[in-house]
Amino acid sequence: MVAVEDYEPLLDDALTYMPFRDQSKTIPRKLQGCIIQSRKDVLLCLKVEVYGRSPDEDPQAIPDLVTPDVRSFKVVNELFGGANQVMIGTSTWNALVTMTVILNHGEPATLATLWKFKHDAKGWSGVKLAALIFHTIYLDEELKKKEVTKYLESIPKAGKSRKDDSIRATLEKVIASMNDNEKKSFSQHLSRELKSLAEIINNEQSKLNKEVFGPKVSKTINDMNSMYFK
User: Fold this and answer.
1) Are strands 73-80 and 41-52 parallel, antiparallel or unpaired?
2) Residue 173: phi, psi to the nearest 5?
3) What is the β-pairing status of strands 93-104 and 41-52?
4) Which of 84, 130, 169, 229 is paired with 24 by a 20 to 30 Å CA distance?
5) DSSP for 28-90, written as a single string
6) Cβ atoms within 10 Å of 77's Cβ, excluding its own
7) Cα distance between residue 179 and residue 124, in whole Å
8) For 53, phi and psi rounded to 5 degrees?
9) How many Cα atoms occupy the beta-carbon half-sphere of 172 within 13 Å?
């Protein structure tokens, strides 16, 4: 039986920082229990191949397979070995996802898609502005300091919660790290502040996914159980 509560989404946690040299057997076992997003698909990982990023620790290393940017990991679906493959990259290891089950064809809330959930909300909030920033980055568009500053100034300085205050403080640090017009690649300082911002709004993404996509994923898994385990 496959139970959705037995699986966890792939987020920024200890797994994505595990050193390949010491954890080469643990990493693939943990990845087999992950739900990941690849483009518009939500996938349940069943089988993966994990490689180190350095030939010194892994003779089969593929150093440039996938390089993470503003988060500790990155998931791509790109041409590799003559076929499109889902790949995961971190700073210490890479993985090829060789067997999956598609759970639903929707767009979960991620750094790249959160703006679609927030752009219709009235007024501006720290989460909405953060969503716009990451949406712009993932579209490879120019990030303008003047525009980001203007939106931040329209948000009340007295937040409704500590989280609001934390997001605002981090947004101020992001702006302070920006040049007038930013395009990839970002400076180390700006990348660090963007990573902090991503970690803060992680709860917002998780909440949306639990409310919107959790039921869909559960239904798909229950349908699978009904089909194969009558």
Assistant:
1) unpaired
2) -70, -40
3) antiparallel
4) 84
5) HHHHTTEEEEETTEEEEEEEEEEEESSTTT-TT--TTS----SSSEEEEEEEETTEEEEEEEE
6) 16
7) 23
8) -95, -10
9) 9
pTM for this structure?
0.59
For residue 121, with 0-12 CB atoms within 10 Å meaning exposed, 13-18 middle and 19 or more buried, which class applies? Answer: exposed
Q: Which two tokens stand for residue 135?
A: 């949406």
**What are the two backbone dihedrals, phi and then psi, of residue 106, each rounded to the nearest 5 degrees?**
-135, 175
* Overall residue count recorded for the chain in this entry: 230
Contact yes or no for 218/35 (Cβ under 8 A): no
Residues 227, 5, 167, 16, CA torsion sign: negative
Tell me the C-alpha to C-alpha distance, in Å, between residue 213 and each of 170, 197, 210.
Answer: 28, 23, 6
Amino acid at 175: I
**Can you list the alpha helix ranges (DSSP code H) found in 119-187?**
126-138, 145-153, 162-177
Per-residue pLDDT of the chain (230 residues; tens, 9 = 90+): 345 555 566 665 678 888 888 888 899 888 887 878 776 677 888 888 999 888 888 888 776 778 777 677 888 888 887 888 888 888 889 998 888 877 765 666 777 778 888 888 888 899 999 999 998 988 878 889 999 999 999 988 876 778 888 899 999 999 999 999 998 778 889 988 998 898 888 778 777 777 766 666 666 666 655 654 45
User: At residue 65, what are phi and psi to the nearest 5 degrees?
Assistant: -60, -55
